[in-house]
Amino acid sequence: LFIATLVNLGFASTIVFRNPRSHINISYGLSVIATALWTLGLVLFRLSSPEYAIPLARFYYISAALIATYFIFFGMHFPNKDDVKHSWWLYVFLHVPAMIISYLVFTTKFISGLSIESWGKNIILGRAYIFYVVFWVAYMGTAFFLMLSRYKTAQPMEKLQLKFVLLGTFIAATGGSLFNLFLPLFGNYQYIWAGPYTTLIMVVFIGYAIVKHRILNIRIITTEVFSATLLAIFLIQFFRSDTLQEFALQGAILIASAFFFWLLIRAINREVESREKIAALATELSFANEELKKLDAAKSEFISIAGHQLRTPLTVIKGYTSMVLEGSFGKIPESIKEALNRVLISSGALAKLVSDLLDLSRIESGKIRYEFKEIDMEAIVRGVMQELEETARAKGIMLELRNENIKDAKLVGDFDKLHEVIINLMDNAIKYSSKGSVTISLKKRLAGDASHIVVSVSDQGMGIKPEDIPKMFVKFGRTEEAKKVRPDGMGLGLYLVKRIIEDHKGRVSVESPGPGQGSTFFIELPTSRN
Fold it and tell me: Which of 525, 362, 389 shows the shortest CA–CA distance to 444?
């Protein structure tokens, strides 16, 4: 029994000093300390002479009342309610039964006498003992109910903690209740020595959880146990000193060791706290990332729905505006033509934006569909040059195609998607240039047994700063200079180019000597899908 007392005291100190500001650690630690005092009281009761039996019985009954009191505090917080603050009056109110019991044990209503039997000392209990039984069962039952009610909603690690703590404490509570609560109620005081041994089962269960599942940090516990053992040895050596010189030497060793172990434990505590904070942050970041993914999916769905709803009226606006300009509804004045031209250009730009948003939504939701077939890349480039010829001429920019000895520019790809890629690159080159020319080059590159077609679009426009190059193919990524030239842009075109080319097993890149010196965008595509 004395060993059980020491084990409980060691276990309690480990829990409390692990985090002395935690409601869970404090309440459970105090409950285990009360268990150690209860066990100590029973040890002394069995060893004492009859005149000390009743005072010691009062001591262990008060200690047992404190076990239940602090265990219900533990049940209010464990495993995930450590930050919940209850009113101070609730804590005071829950101490009231223990205070009443502390008074009753000094009356004959609780302990009415003592008898000496053949097996040992027997405490004769009075009617007030029934209040003690009801209090113990109510408090312990409520604490277990509170913890069990949280099991279903607990996180995996919290469930593991609940499993071991509940099982260990339930066995200890059941053993203590049987031998030290109910049997004495029916006049059997012979087996009160058995209850404290069940508390060792609790320590074993939670100790196993600490070592096997790291409910508490094993490094801290090992260090604390090792430190305490060595300090106990140094303390014994200190008191066994025979001379003043030896006494001073052992005292110095004891003080130095205590200071060193304190520094060691504090350093390990800080390291563990840092790791726990990092782990908590990682969990929070993981949760935030999942939420962001959900929001991103919702955003893509919204863009898709909004895009489809906008596309139809925009098509109608463009169609009727074009028909009016062509004279399908009769001749119109020049002043109205100019206004309608602006409407047509703006609706075209808006239709392009809607198309980009829909493509973005399809790509990110994995719903984009490709029709891979043999196509001629040079034909696509020439077609785009014809489409943008008028736009380039209006800005005084010349379009030039350079075929670097490619007799066959055929590859396997999606015609419409690659047409969109080329038109994006060439349209950007024209938009961000105020003079000079835009050169489109086609060449073939061999890489082992595979061949690739490289298309480059070079301009003499505004150029790109070296630090801005990584932003070029990022979703909604735009440089400050680009925002000044074209504030209406969204930064989606190049992102879509990158995604489409990557889906074709190709790659994109950009080079620029610097601001004001133009830039060159490259796309490289395999000629075969194999």
Answer: 525
**Dist CA 420 CA 352 (whole Å):** 11
Cα dihedral 387, 393, 397, 401 sign = positive
d(CA 65, CA 144): 16
What's the CA gap between 36 and 6, in Å, rounded?
Answer: 7
pLDDT at 334: 78
Residue 120 zone, left/alpha/beta (φ > 0; ψ -120 to 50; rest) = left
How many residues are listed for the chain in this entry? 530
Helices (H), 366-513: 377-394, 415-431, 480-485, 493-503
Nearest to 215 by CA among 279, 172, 160: 160
Q: What domains, with CATH codes, occur in the chain? A: 2-216 (1.20.1070), 242-368 (1.10.287.130), 373-526 (3.30.565.10)
- The pLDDT value recorded for residue 140 is 92
For the chain, the farthest-separated pair of C-alpha atoms sits apart, in whole angstroms, at: 127
Q: Which residue has the higher pLDDT, 306 or 428?
A: 428
Radius of gyration of the chain (CA): 41
pLDDT tier at 307 (50, 70, 90 boundaries)? Answer: low
3 state SS of 420: helix
DSSP state of 408: -
Mean model confidence pLDDT for the chain: 80
Asked if the bond preceding 79 is cis, omega within 30° of 0, the reply is yes
Residue 250, H or E segment: helix 244-325
Of the candidates 501, 513, 503, the one whose C-alpha atom is nearest the C-alpha of residue 453 is 501
